[in-house]
DUF2785 domain-containing protein (Candidatus Levilactobacillus faecigallinarum), 274 residues
Amino acid sequence: MHSSLLSLQRLVTATDLHFTDDQVATMLAHVGDPDPTIRDDTVYTLFARGFTENRLTAEQKRLVAHKLLHDRPLFTAIDQPQGSTVFLQTFTALLTALLLESDARETWLPTAIRDQFIADALAYLPREHDTRGWVTGNGWADGICHGSDLLGAAWSHPHFNQAQAPQALAAIATVLTHQPRPFVNDEEPRLAMPIVQALTQHHLRAEVLTQWLQETDTVVWRDFSFTDHAAIARTHNWLAFCHHLFFLLPADEPIHAVLQAISHHYYHQNGYLN
């Protein structure tokens, strides 16, 4: 392993954490490294500590933001067939979420850059077609989960424009209505969390969520057939998503009645209720 990466690995457990500009540049060069020891255990871990513990200088934070804005790694080869670039996309999603969460705690991003990152968060999930979770030899890709984390960071940001809430909901609906297989990597609660965060921050009105839930339920069941495995998978994923949303929301949340109705509809369609 290159000496610069070895020096980064030694930083992971450092108590007095600080970075040189060269180290930050090396981290940026390996955000999507196919090796999970480098990508997950070293680079992302260090960025997470750097932003949450405020261990990056102001100039280093600006360097990261401008690199993401200039190179657009979140969308690199996103329309191409499945490949190793998915790790660059999905871990850029996590890194962008770190930037937005840091800016939410203490404003430092210029308005135009912040607005672009929020727009990217809204655009990423509908475009990410590589929905693999664990990839043998490379670790977690997890585009849906990481994209959900990014969407949650954007939607809960103090400067999120509530007028963009329908676009955020549409991003989640796109995933739920296009996924042809059952989720197996806990994608459903990760997709539900941005909605919980948005409601908590008053960036989503209950009536908007209610209408979206009802409309999405209609879409999920449209042209349903018990001989269509993809349709069965979508209704299963949708029910699991709604159940996670039900239990993640406060017990007295009025939206619970809508979620119960959606559950009853599923049970009725499958013959569990008369």
Q: What stands out?
A: The mean pLDDT is 96. The radius of gyration is 20 Å. The first strand starts at residue 134 and ends at 135. Strands lie at 134-135, 139-140.
